[in-house]
Amino acid sequence: MLEHLVNLSIISSSLRIATPILLASLAGTISERSGVINIGIEGVMLLSAFAAAFGSFFLGAWPGVLVGVMVGGALGLVHAFMSITVRSDQVVNATAVNILAIGLPNIIISRVWKGYYSSTPIVPVVRNLRLELLDRLPVVGKVFGDLNPIVYVAFLLVPAMHVLLFKTRVGLRIRAVGELPIAADTLGVNVPKLRYLSVIASGMLAGLGGAYLSICYQSQFSMGMTEGRGFIGLAAMIFGRWTPVGAMAASILFGLADAFQANAQSAGLPIPAEIMLTLPYVLTLLALIKVAGKRVLGPAAAGQPYVKN
Amino acid sequence: MRGIVKRFPGVLANDDVDLEVTSGEVHCLLGENGAGKTTLMNVLYGLYSRDRGEICVDGSPVEFKGPSDAIRHGIGMVHQHFMLVPVFSVVDNIVLGSEPTRGGFIDRDRARREILALSREYNLPVDLEAQVRDISVGMQQRAEILKLLYRGARIMILDEPTAVLTPKEVDELFKIICALKSSGCTIVFITHKLREVMEFSDRVSVLRRGRRVATLETANTDAAELVKMMVGREVVAHVEKSDRVPGRVVARVDEVTAKNQRQLPALRGLSFQVSEGEIVGIAGVEGNGQNELAEILTGHRKPTSGKVTLQGRDMTGRSPKEFLRAGVAYIPADRLRDGLIAEFALFENTTLGYQDSLPFAKGVRLDQGEERLFCEQIVKEFEIKATSTSVPSGLLSGGNQQKLIIGRELRRDPRLLVAVQPTRGLDVGAIEYVHSQLIRAREEGKAVILISLELNEILSLSDRILVMYEGRIAGEFTSAEASREELGLCMAGGRASQ
Amino acid sequence: MKTQSSFQHRQGIELVVAVLEEPIARSLLALFLALAVVFLVMPVLGANPLGAYSSLFAGAFGSKQAIGETSLAMTPLLISSLGFALAYKCGLFNIGLEGQIQVGAVAAAFVGYSIHGLPSAVHLPLALAASLAAGAIWGLGPAILKARFGIHEVISTIMMNYIAFKLSAYMVSVQGPMKDRLDLMPASPVIESSAKLARIMGGTRLTWGIAIALVAAFLVWFLLSKTRLGYKLRVVGQNHFAAEVGGIRASHYYVIAMMLSAGLGGLAGGVETLGVHYRLLASFSPGYGFDAIAVSLLGGLHPLYIIVSSFIFGALRSGAILMQAKEGMSKDIVQVISTVIIFVMSMADPLGRLIKRRIGLKTNA
Predict the structure, then answer these.
(1) Are the C-beta atoms of residues C108 and C238 closer than 8 Å to each other?
(2) What's the average model confidence in pLDDT over B402-429?
(3) C238 shares contact with chain B (CB less than 8 Å)
(4) Does the CB of B84 have a partner CB in chain A at under 8 Å?
(5) Are residues C1 and C95 in the same domain?
(6) Helix (H), strand (E) at residue B309
(7) Residue B30: predicted pLDDT
């Protein structure tokens, strides 16, 4: 039984499961680093997952991914407008998106596909990448040989975002805008523009995460398929101290736990399936407690609209 | 600047103001709080948009859409509250918005080289890699000035630059200003301190209630004339205070140590006492533990060691509620954040702190009739300008807000009144009122602890003055023997000859 | 020089601002916009808007039975919305109502079917109390995380939601301890009749639950506006810094507010279980916990106005069932209406301030 529980395939499963969480936490990170809280990532992921499946059905897998990312970006724009220009409560706005994501897909599905209600039919998927060379290697091959290209994209985004945030001008300004926007403003930095860019990028990342779920990880969209990953991603962001590398580490950890839980079920552990399914959420809570004990704060200006005279 | 008009909701901050600054001079903008000095400079710097008027730089008219335009024209501004990101390093703060790049990435090496060169040339030593939140206020100010120099500013606006400095640091600052002037810069500095105007400026423009009253050559005028222009009438220099012998000890602090928000030591063994009918003024430069002291005395912070006693009762580490019950009233520094609930009506604000006592608390209920009555009494007694007790307290002027808080706290009939920066941001009329209330509290036999960054206030009101430096009492003076020089020495860490 | 048209223009803008600021007008505007948006969007989704809305109306008000269904749907909405509003007044965003409703149902069902031989006057209040307590306990965790560690309650309550769903599914799963052995459905045994909420209106399914909900509304209103505790909760919600200075310990009251709010959520689940389903079903709530947010906001977070807004939403929910049957318009359209309402209500204040700033009036912000 032990070899069912702990084997190399658990690592590749972890990476696959971690990917949407990673994308969600990167989305959260870039948004909050610029000072805008975005708890609507769950809803954006879900709506983008649907959009991607929709796009894939009519246009093919890769165009579907593009549709998902674009929809995510559009939703990011809406959140940006509400939070930055109108300056209404960021949590309330995001919650509205989350609620919309519960109902809107079903309405469209029942209209477009006769007989379907809470999930789409099977759609074309982005196929996994079989890397011939890696496949032959003993250990590495088992782990990396058969992964989806989006998994690679997601993990490559980690160093990309790290470099962006800490080594480029844009990154410095984004971080400044999230810590003390008035300081940046007095130096001629365009605070709203940077925040808009960050939030739209955040939406696009969440959109990619959603697209991954419906046309890479699964092969269709079904109601509520994000299962809270958007929120777990936010917890990973906090756990990872609002850095891309930290987000990656935290996401892998959550992915590992989820993969372990799935393996344990098939390995015949005497714990009921539903109880095991609570593991990711319990773990998230524990992670939050562990982090909070150290009094960690995010970007100082996160959540506060910037008012200019 | 000609005919500048700037309006905010409900306030005409700049009313047709003209200002002319000649190159190479040190020009001072003088006025009391609310006169419109900062607003005018913010308009010049492009941070605020102007409603009317025009600005010319070097003879040609300019249109600043934002600070980056002003920066390009060689104008720089150091604000009263430093615009430094606490978690960034000094170098990152200095280059923000004008970062040098190499191949798409920030070239920090080049930044360091350039800044160090400037630092050496103008004698502005800074630690480039340190995080801003860890460095001293003096170094932060030097970093702010380097920000301007890095961008090639020839016109420098300094807004109340001495507010957070010790007298010695003030002298150093003005050495720097002289150096900048001799290298061809033009300096405009905003202040409300006459002494600085007389000592350091070439010309001074006085603003009052949004209008420019006059512009004079500093050499041709004196403090008294400037004050009259600043305030519009004769100002009483001294506060009338009767001779009193202090009564019993009300509060005692014994060897108290405490940490601040960031777990760094803030109070390092503080001991003093205050008695009935005396005002103890706590002087000191900001950041030497005064805030933490106020919090210890009101229950908002637990000391890590030592004792706090109130009328013989040990109150160390008790909750704010217990301090309130024990008769401690608190006038906090940030009246909008800590003293009032802006969205609530006046009468709901005056109940704050009284919600569990009679006559308001009737079982589980809160008697709104009593609330309103109490509020009306306070409004009347303290001459607060408000149309009714139902208006949100955020709509009152700063002075009236402070009166509301003072009224609420004094009606508690406290044994100890802790007032922190009670006149910050108020105009002279309101300041006089607040001072008279503090004196009145003293006359009524209350113990008053006044924590303030304004030396004049401390000097004129206190019976005894304690100077805080790095979390300890660095010197104790009676009001008779205290002088600005000795106090200044203490505030900067020198030992006073006692 | 002001021309006639610019004067009228300004008058028009001032009218818009006035509507945005006045609580009742603002709610009506939100409702109107939401219904209008959906009306305009329906043809795209292949439904006939007039037909859809008329069957919606008929399904909500068209008969005595319809009104009964509307009021029945209103009941859990009202109770959970009160919970949301109460937490919000204390500065907390309780998005965990859905999970709290679920655990309330678990507790109510358990007490309902496992205790035999009690008179109704004891059994029913006991079951309701159990649901309230279960909800409160479910909110305790996030409350303490916020009070002691400053963890934002949104993430913690949502995690608790998922845990509640999975645990409750387990309870009535094949190996679950609460599964009815004699039934194929994933459900608990039916509760004793002594625990059932009696019908209040003949010919409908409406129970005394509605009375409980209305009493709750009055109690919450009284608490918030007339009591000392309510004052303290509101102060903490508006400005927790000033609260501390006034001797009100914010962390203490976060816990109280959250437990009261979550308790109301649990009660909603209990009332629904004891009055409608009579047993625990794996997931019975069609999103009451999330509707509560829209209902609360639409009611301007005022307990008594929430009675009206929960009635409106109850009408939407029960009417939508008929609408789906007759017009084929999915009842999830209610979710879309919810969203628009939330957007409008949350934008109203800031938008009003924005417009005022542009035209130069004095604001309070």
Answers:
(1) no
(2) 89
(3) yes
(4) yes
(5) no
(6) strand B305-310
(7) 86
Identity of the residue in A175, A176, A309 whose CB atom sits nearest the CB atom of B48: A309
Q: Which residues of A touch C338 (CB under 8 A)?
A: 96, 99-100, 103
Per residue in A233-246, pLDDT (tens digit) is 999 998 888 999 99
C290 interfaces chain A, CB cutoff of 8 Å: yes
Task: Quickly state the pLDDT bin for A49 (edges 50, 70, 90).
Answer: very high
Residue B427 identity: D
Q: Are residues C57 and C30 in the same domain?
A: no
What is d(CA C157, CA A88) in angstroms, rounded to the nearest whole number? 22
Contact B191, B179 (CB under 8 A): no
pLDDT, residue C364, reads 40
CATH of residue C163's domain is 1.10.3470
Q: What is residue A135's predicted lDDT score, i.e. its pLDDT?
A: 65
Pull the structure tokens for residue C232: 């303290």
Q: Which amino acid appears at position B75 of this protein? A: I
Interface membership of A103 toward C (CB under 8 Å): yes
Measured between beta carbons, the chain B residues lying within 8 angstroms of A183 are 83-85, 93, 96
Q: Is residue A80 within 8 angstroms of chain C, CB to CB?
A: no
Find the closest chain C residue to B358 by CA distance. Answer: C228
ipTM over 0.90: no
pLDDT of residue B9: 62
C198 & C338 share domain = no
Candidates A165, A166, A186, partner chain B, best to mutate (most B CBs within 10 A): A186
The pLDDT score that the predictor gives to residue B163 is 75
Q: Which pLDDT score, from 0 to 100, does residue B498 have? A: 40
C-beta of residue B147 within 8 angstroms of C-beta of residue B93 = yes
Is residue C107 domain-shared with residue C205, that is, in the same domain? Answer: yes
Q: What is the pLDDT of residue A4?
A: 56
CA B50 to chain C, closest CA, distance in angstroms equals: 14
Total of domains in chain C: 2
- Same domain for C28 and C160, yes or no, is no
| A91-125 pLDDT, tens digit each | 999 999 999 998 889 888 888 888 888 888 888 88
| Residues in C touching A117 (Cβ below 8 Å) | 330
Residues B385-394 pLDDT 10s = 888 888 999 8
Q: Which residues of C touch B339 (CB under 8 A)?
A: 242, 245
- On whether both C310 and C336 belong to a single domain, the answer is no
Q: Domain residues for C124?
A: 48-328
Please name each of the domains of chain A with its CATH number. 2-122+154-292 (1.10.3470)
Please tell me whether residues C160 and C13 are part of one structural domain.
Answer: no
DSSP-based three-state secondary structure for B445:
coil
Report yes or no: B93 at the A interface, CB cutoff 8 Å: yes
Stretch A201-229: mean pLDDT, rounded? 93
Share of chain B above pLDDT 70, in %: 96
Helices (H), B278-344: 290-298, 320-325
Contact C291, C338 (CB under 8 A): yes
Instruction: State how far the Cα of B313 lies from the Cα of A30, in Å rounded to an integer.
Output: 52
Cα separation, B404 vs B375, in Å, equals 9
Give dist(CA C315, CA B391) in Å, integer.
Answer: 38
Work out whether strand B211-217 and strand B203-208 pair parallel, antiparallel, or are unpaired: antiparallel
Contact B355 C232 (CB under 8 A): yes
Q: What is the predicted pLDDT for the residue at A6?
A: 63
Cα distance from C326 to chain A (closest Cα, Å)?
15
- C75 and C205: one domain? yes
Residues contacting A84, CB < 8 A, separation 6+? A36, A192, A195, A196, A199, A305, A306
A92 touches chain C (CB under 8 A): yes
Beta-carbon contacts of B299 under 8 Å, excluding residues fewer than 6 positions away, are B315, B318, B319, B320, B321, B322, B323, B324, B328
With CA atoms as reference, report the closest residue to A223 among A213, A232, A231.
Answer: A213
Q: How far apart are CA C103 and CA C165, in angstroms?
A: 9
Cβ-defined contact of C347 to A110 (cutoff 8 Å): no
Q: Does the pLDDT value for residue C259 go beyond 90?
A: yes
